[in-house]
Amino acid sequence: MAHLKQLKQRTRADYPYIREYRTRWSDNDMYNHMNNSIYNFLYDSVINTYLIENCGLRPASSPQYGMVVHSHNDYFSSISFPACAELALRVNRIGQSSVTYEIALFEKGQPAVKSVGEFVQVFVDRETGRPNPKGMCDEMRQGLERLLVPQAQSKI
């Protein structure tokens, strides 16, 4: 993952896939900003939306699915209801059975990134719960490669 200074400079142009999320009153915590746990829900949602739309994932029946094995988030400024969030997604690394995502959260109409997170998923076989020795299926890999940022892969 990039250094904090680099992450704070991220723009929407750094991400090939963006989806909007309308914040809800219940997303706010007692400090009047979106609760930290909501960020992880949103990150997981944008990833799975992409996998369903572009990688052939069928959550209830696909022979392989991704399990999150690592996640973290760097917060730069807050967002709160009734703002509209924009969730931006890219892939920084693809392994044999794993993928490293970078997710940024922006507030619609504002240029500065609010937070940047990282999720690592390992794709496992539904029957065994273990990674397939041959790696992730071709359809999944090809879909993820469309989000791969080449310079990010080469820095790892």
Automatic annotation (TrEMBL):
The keyword Hydrolase applies. Transmembrane segments: none annotated. It holds the Pfam family 4HBT_2. InterPro entries: 4-hydroxybenzoyl-CoA_TE, HotDog_dom_sf. Keywords: Hydrolase. It comes from the Eukaryota. PANTHER family: 4-HYDROXYBENZOYL-COA THIOESTERASE FAMILY MEMBER, NOVEL THIOESTERASE SUPERFAMILY DOMAIN AND SAPOSIN A-TYPE DOMAIN CONTAINING PROTEIN (0610012H03RIK). Belongs to the 4-hydroxybenzoyl-CoA thioesterase family. This is Thioesterase. The lineage of its organism: Eukaryota, Fungi, Dikarya, Ascomycota, Pezizomycotina.
